[in-house]
Design a protein that fits this description.
Number of strands: 0
Shape: globular
Largest sheet: none
Helix content: 55-70%
Radius of gyration: 21 Å
Length: 191
Amino acid sequence: MTTVVIIVAVVLVVAAGLFFAFGRQPGGRGLQRRFGPEYDRTVARHDGDAKAAEHELSERLKRHRSLDERPLSPEDRARYAERWTRIQGGFVDAPQQAVAEADALLAELARDTGFPDGSDFEEQTAALSVHHAEHLNGYRRVHAVQRGEGSTEEMREAMIEARGLFDVLVSNGNGAPVRQAHHQAEGSDTA
């Protein structure tokens, strides 16, 4: 009986130690896993100072972790999908205009799903990074190239990458692309 109690106590102490070492600590590897490429981008912005970057990311988590995403109605989902398809279709004739429209659409979509208003791009992307870090780079690229900071090929690549964030937001967080069977052209994933 005493041996069983000692074994149980040792297991509990080890489990508690592992929890405090890995499960509770928001910094370091936990932040790196959660934020992915956004972690690296933030470290680079802080000139390689991982501690400063982790402080910033921890503050983002505090500010935006409890943000409640609002699901879109089926009608709104269809409306957004139709707009994205129209923007993609216009890319060939007017890539700069299409990218600017995609940037505006993503800002509006993020706002309509509960993220901060797109009038402050950095605040909106900070909130998005807490919930959708793996899809944020495309939105950042679209935002940069819509100001004329890229070639047509860079704009095309930005549009393709931004589609990931669009799909996650328009599908109410499940990441499944919304397709319009009769209105979407074949090969639409290529801007």
